[in-house]
Structures are given as structure tokens and as C-alpha cells.
Amino acid sequence: MATKRRRQSITEATNKTKRAKFTLDSARLPEITTGGVVLVTGAGDVGQLGLGPDVLEKSRPALVNLNHEIVDICAGGMHTVCLTTEGKDSHGNMGMTLKGNEKLPFQIIKDVHIIKIASGADHIVFLSNHGQVYTCGCAEQGQLGRTTERGSSRNARSGIAKLLLPAPISLKPSLKLHFDNIWAATYGTFCKVANSDDIFVFGLNNYNQLGLKSLTPQYMPKLSKEFSKYKWNIISSGQHHTISLDEDGKVYAIGRKEYGRLGLGKDCEDAAELQLVSTLEDKKVINVS
Description:
Helix content is 3%, strand content 36%. It is an all-beta fold. The radius of gyration is 19 Å and the shape is globular.
């Protein structure tokens, strides 16, 4: 006789755990606890909650069945990514996959030990234990760092299959670069070189949000001299601006000024270079997002 395994309750799953991290986009909020379980709430119409095709929305936190202990999590525009203790990666909806929408968690990258993940609006960035950076998703603004402008369109002759599978970013072999940190912007990516302050960037830069002088999209990794001036703990980048926290607890802003997003005062201009947020200058900030 077949028996159905009882679904573990949130109370049972989160017993003796603490909230370790939460991340959000405009429609939902996934949360990870120190016990390694994931709770989600919000919109799930395209599977981004990872609860299956019948769950279109959750107004209360729901437990995601992953059968692995989770150590990191990030959310994009229409997808959620979870990193397990084994370095494997699972996510719900990516917005586009070879099979279409994924409404239950699946392993997206195999045979590579991943130590950090980051999500933009519609792309994912992975950092391996060997210092390699992998990307997948939409490439139209250059955010994958491995295709030309012509090859970044969904209508490209080569098709979109190569964009949907994680692959290393394009780097000159002679540079022999390895990385030890990554951050994802809405439509861009930041990669920190191991044992260095150098930051390589690619993606949308129409308001200098990547710290590059040219306002055109950057399709291949390029050294951002502006961001390489500092030692960063966190780089948090939206669509048109970037807020960064250095190791001394100082906050810097760059990009578009509208709606006060830079925190530089009502009379400020768009910032083409990193500007210290003076109202926080006498404080030691520990996080920005």
C-alpha cells in the first residue's frame, strides 16, 4: 500500500533556527534561516516561489521543499536562487529556460562547486571555489559578460540556448584572472579580482552606474577604475544607480539622481563618479541594499 509522506510544517522545520538572510524583489520575499530552510511569500504566478504550478500567491510564509540545507539565497525579477551546502544551485522561475517556466526547484549548474550567487532582474551570477564567474539569463544589456551585442538578442542567429545555461564570462586568458566576490545589478554585474581591489563590470551603464565613462552597454568584462579605488564590503546596484559600502563603513553613491535615490540631497546632480554620502559620514554603516 502506498503512503503519502506528510509535508513538514513551518513550525517543525524552523524549530531552533534564526533568520539568517532575506532578499526581495518587487513582488515577493524569500527568507533563509540558520537552520538552512527557505520560507517564501508573495507572488508566484510564474513559479518564482518554487511551490509548484498551483500556487499563484502566498500571503503567509510557506516552506519550500528542497531536501538540502541552504546557505545562500537571492531573488531576481521573476526567479529565486538557492545555494546548498554542497555548492549546488536550485531555483524556481528564471523567466526563460530551455523547457519554459520552472515552477519547482531544479538544479541549474552541475559539476561546479559554487560558493556565492547573485541575481539581477533577469540574470544570475555564480562564483566558483576556483574563482571563476559563471552567468546565465538575459544578455540584452550585456549583463552576462560573455556575448557580443549582436549575440545578446533573443533573435540572434545562434539562438538563446547558450544564454540559458550557466557558462564562464569572457576574459582574456593572458590576464589570468580569478575572482573572490560578485554582485549583481538590475541589469549589470560586478566582479572583484581575488587578492586585489580591482573590480570588473559589465552590463547597463547609461548613468555611469558601473563606474565607466562610456554610457553605452558594456558587453564584455571591463575594469572599472572608479570602483577599483576602494575596498568594498558591499555593492548594491539598481537599474540606474549604485550604492556601495567600503570596509571602513562609509557609503558611496553613483548614477541617476531622481527620487533622491543617491542620498546626496535634493539639489544634487547625476553622479558620474562615486560620491560619499555625507549625511552618513560620521556613522559606521554595516549594510546597504
